[in-house]
Amino acid sequence: MNKSLWLSALLLLALSSCLKNNDDEEQVYYHDTALTSFKLGTLKRILHTTSSSGEDSTYSSTVLGAAYAFTIDQQKGLVYNVDSLPVGTDVSKVIFTASTKNSGSLVLNLRTKDGQRDSLKVYSTTDSIDFTNPVEFRVYNQSGTTYRKYMVEVRAHKQNGNIFRWKQVTLTDDEKAALLAQRTQPTDVSSVIGGDALDTAAEWLPTSDLNLVSMPLKTNADALRKVLVGNRSVETHPSDTMAMVWCKIVDPDALNQPWFFYTPTSSNRYQLPRMKNLQVAVYGDWLVAIGGAGLGACTLQPYEHFYVSEDNGLTWHRSASIVFPSGFTAEGIYALVADDDKNLWLIDEASGTAWRGYLNKMKWEEK
């Protein structure tokens, strides 16, 4: 529908406001309106994969658009999804539903194919709209005398969030020392526990390769969760295959709590292996760990995998996203450090060779 036809329709609508219905009751037309809801339908997503022969191919799946809530900023006239759609989502052909206040009329101000002029189009639930670029919505009041304008942006990620990128860098001695100083690796477990109570016997406390990390609680930013990770002595506990993991909540507004031990059980198949030179760092909401050769009854080769815990150290999984960088050799003794810029550092403590890396989605908030 072009602009002239649309304005004619609005004029007829305004004239009809003076008429009466069949019951001889005057109809009331409201002069204020607004966009009150916007919801996506099902969208198509194109994914890339590699076959067993190494050839690249694509396949399609669907994305439930309704699962992505849209914010409507009435003051600024902006509509957008805070959580972006997954990478590969096709936003060029979008079906959506929208609601307006007081039965206002929704009109889309679309660019013509040549991009030279605007074209007004009355909203229809069956229309497929291109949201590659933000689209202007106009919500006209019932009398057609005015409208409210909104810019609607459908956001989709441009890159795969689970890709980890490494870059080899050269560090000065001071830079290396500053990074290594960010680790907390006590030499004596008693300095960590102090006079705190334990929920089980002290024989389960680690005595070597100690790592102490802290992270704020999601439910209370003033409280901390401390996680202590390390190994028991090979001489006294030669049959251990897993590292020892302890946890303590530190809340300044609560009573002092004991240290809790994540007791190894046969039902938990995802415990952190017992590795020499164990290194643990906090990366976002994750705990990330690496280590050298297995100790005691653990037969791992040095630096086989990165291990990630998404539940504060209870379970650990081999990371599919974070792998050792090109040029890495397992002969060194490596430090693992996370900095304030959402980078992970892998540093050979002897040679000073270093890699800096990040997971794509860890950086999205900064862009």
Topology at a glance:
Blueprint lengths: L2 H14 L18 E6 L1 E9 L5 E9 L5 E4 L4 E4 L14 E5 L4 E7 L6 E5 L12 E6 L6 E7 L10 E6 L3 H8 L9 H4 L14 E9 L7 E8 L12 E7 L9 E2 L17 E5 L2 E5 L16 E3 L7 E2 L15 E5 L5 E5 L5 E6 H4 L4
Parallel strand pairs: 5-10
Antiparallel strand pairs: 1-6, 2-3, 4-5, 7-8, 7-9, 9-10, 11-22, 12-13, 13-14, 14-15, 16-17, 17-18, 18-19, 20-21, 21-22
What does this structure look like?
This protein is mainly beta and 367 residues long. The chain has 2 domains: 3-153, Sandwich (Immunoglobulin-like), CATH 2.60.40; 164-366, no CATH class. Helices cover 8% and strands 34% of the residues. The protein contains 4 helices and 22 strands. The chain has helices at residues 3-16, 173-180, 190-193, 360-363; strands at residues 35-40, 42-50, 56-64, 70-73, 78-81, 96-100, 105-111, 118-122, 135-140, 147-153, 164-169, 208-216, 224-231, 244-250, 260-261, 279-283, 286-290, 307-309, 317-318, 334-338, 344-348, 354-359. The protein has a 6-stranded mixed β-sheet with strand order 4-5-10-9-7-8, with no helix packed on it. A hairpin with a 7-residue loop joins strand 12 and strand 13 (224-231). Residues 3-8 and 10-22 have low confidence and may be disordered.
